[in-house]
Write a structure and sequence with these properties.
homodimer, Rossmann fold, 2 domains, eight-stranded mixed sheet, 40% helix, 14% strand
């Protein structure tokens, strides 16, 4: 606590990705010394020469704290954990092929930490996971690997990350942070520590409450995106423009939040987090029917988009098989360079399996690999590439897309994002979701 | 249009309930002459002597426009429709016993209007119903009964009501109003007419879009209440206080809106509207799985609350059978006098069937009838009535309830509304949802 109050505390951050790097920068900017532990050598080297690999972060931000103030350094060597008073875990928590939680990154981080940490270390987990992970999964691994005892030799906390890539208003520093310390001492340390870098703190009674908070936030999004996707499909059949409906509903000044349909859910949070909860619920003999139903809708969306493309081509007496299809946008949301869990890729895979010739253009993503290992490279968005396509599919509404130009040149468009706002449902050449 | 612009237009409003009466007052306050058509003689008489039967409306409001400005009068005589330039339909749209739309109130209103209206009448429907009702259900009835022709002799519009009982900020006048005129002329008239009384108008392209808007708004609420009810039940098993989780999640400054669990959904909108959509979707061979799942969760909630009461009594080695149970609050939400579709009533019916002796107290609802026709009368909330109850169940969190007093006197409490905020999940005498 003393080292926290005089800012001589040394913070280790395990994992310098979308969560860890902004957090490391937030602490370093607050004049706290940060060591970033990152097993991917390309990333740790990039940091040490002041190069960013995340679209929300400028090289300048990194240069200033790495080269000028020298508050941040990155390493692949986990023995340096022993120099740290605090270790914050920001590693991925994906699903495996069977859509079950894959805690192996957390497990490996805990082993590395347990084997190297000094007594008196405060450990905080930021990776999204199901309630009880900190108490029942992290704690035993750390105790086993370190031989130390909770609340005597080390402290534990769960504090969910709330990074929203592309959000210009809310960054790490000014987004309220939920803190779930395990025990009173951990709660006090958590408050002191995070208070150095983050403006608004919101302590809760336990790690499991904090774990549930994050899952509630993202389950809320999953459920609402699924609902609107389902309603979009019905609206299409009823000749109702769902985008017009949403904009009108959004004029209600209370009790409504607008969500928009699309080719499916993407990113590292919404497609995964709710299924962490569904998994642990089974241990409590509890079926989460809302999450299950929402998941089913979203799993089907890429196939429904494929069907829409196929019926659009049908209007021109063409089949998917042999058609030339150009996808615009691979990122899972506008104006970012992240293609994780992007539904566009799933649509591409499916139409390719049906025999279509596929290209994509995304100004932020030069290259991408599908789940079955095939590599795709972004093409330039020339007039030729548009006019040659039998169908152009708008899968991400990057603001830089020149929509009037695309509409003018394309033979046929399937617009899954309402990028073309001034037409309703469909006309001769445009099909909207 | 001329009579609209010089405010000599005469507006008829069919149905002076929670929607029609505030709307009638809004027009009358704008110096438009309004005739209210209300088949319930007690209501039309009440209006004519300046008495309100809705908690959001004062007697004074009615007195001023009925007795002073004389802009509003009520009648049970539908032949006076012939005096009106405009008729607005604000009748109930309930579900029948099989949870199918019951459009009989709309049908009867349309017959009354069709038989009595003069050429040049503008008809607007505000009752929530499934998309296509205005075009495919109202129009043929009016044309058949009147012998007149749409767009030549009369005009149609759907404009969803957005009344939120108990809302102190948003009233009829200052809540943006969606207008779905059928055809260009109807759109222009709708804008002119509603503009007399309502500040913000939002015209959409068709009645079916406007019909869908209202259902989207309320389906959004149904889905999110169902989700949080399901998560509340899981959280209980995991020893997580869902109320604490929701408050923490609500600190997220974007992308989250808080909903709270309870004994089920109530009121005239959320339990009904989504099932109107589910009904029409079947005609399009479309299953709305999210609404269906949400409906199933909410149908079960009263039974789950009964189980919770039973297990609370079990802690005191008592059975439901023969226990004395006091319910606090019958209204479906705090501080209003409306018990329509109130889940409290469903819980009461169930515990009574299991042999419990039931009383209720609600300062706003003196008497209430259950679905099977049994009548209940509110008891005074005396110390005796609380101490004599084997279990007190908080079903509505009216702000006037003296919670510390109730906690002090009650043997056992089941709190379905987080009225008792400072305890987590449960203690010896308090059980929270």
């Amino acid at each position: 606590m003393e080292r926290i109050s005089n800012k001589t505390v040394k913070v280790g951050i395990v994992g310098l990705g979308y969560v860890g790097l902004p957090l490391a920068i937030a602490f370093a900017k607050s004049e706290v010394t940060v060591i970033g532990f990152e097993k991917d050598e390309r990333k740790s080297n990039a940091i040490n020469i002041g190069k960013s690999y995340i679209s929300d972060i400028d090289d300048d931000d990194i240069l200033r704290i790495v080269k000028v103030s020298k508050k941040l350094s990155a390493t692949t060597d986990f023995t340096a954990i022993q120099e740290c008073d605090v270790v914050i875990i920001c590693v991925p928590t994906p699903l495996n092929k069977f859509k079950e939680p894959d805690l192996s990154y957390i497990e490996n981080a805990c082993i590395d930490i347990g084997r190297n940490m000094k007594p008196g270390t405060f450990i905080s987990l930021e990776s999204t996971t199901f309630p009880t992970t900190t108490e029942n999964y992290i704690r035993p691994i750390i105790e086993r690997e370190s031989g130390m005892i909770l609340d005597k030799d080390f402290w534990l906390c769960f504090s969910p990350e709330r990074i929203d890539p592309g959000n210009k208003t809310f960054k790490t520093e000014n987004t309220p942070k939920v803190l779930g310390g395990l025990g009173e001492e951990a709660k006090n340390i958590a408050r002191g520590l995070y208070g150095l870098a983050i403006q608004h703190l919101y302590p809760v009674s336990s790690p499991r409450v904090a774990e549930m908070v994050k899952i509630l936030e993202n389950t809320y999004r999953l459920i609402n995106i699924s609902l609107i996707n389902e309603l979009a499909l019905l609206a299409g059949r009823m000749n109702i423009d769902i985008w017009e409906v949403i904009d009108a509903a959004a004029t209600k000044p209370y009790g409504f939040q607008a969500f928009y349909p699309g080719p499916g859910i993407g990113g590292h949070c919404i497609p995964l987090d709710p299924f962490y909860l569904e998994y642990i619920a089974k241990i409590y003999n509890f079926d989460l029917s809302m999450i299950h139903t929402a998941g089913a809708i979203n799993n089907l969306m890429p196939y429904r988009i494929m069907t829409k493309i196929s019926f659009a081509l049908n209007r021109h007496k063409k089949s998917l098989n042999g058609s030339n299809i150009l996808f615009l946008g691979i990122a899972y949301k506008p104006d970012i360079n992240d293609a994780r869990e992007s539904p566009a890729l799933l649509v591409i895979e499916q139409v390719e399996r049906k025999g279509a010739v596929v290209h994509y253009h995304d100004p932020y993503i030069q290259e991408v690999m599908s789940e079955n290992g095939k590599r795709y490279t972004s093409v330039e968005l020339s007039e030729d590439i548009i006019t040659n396509a039998d169908c152009v599919v708008i899968t991400t509404n990057h603001t830089c897309f020149d929509i009037p130009f695309i509409v003018e040149k394309a033979k046929l468009i399937v617009d899954t994002r309402n990028a073309i706002k001034n037409i309703s449902i469909e006309n001769k050449t445009i099909f909207k979701l």
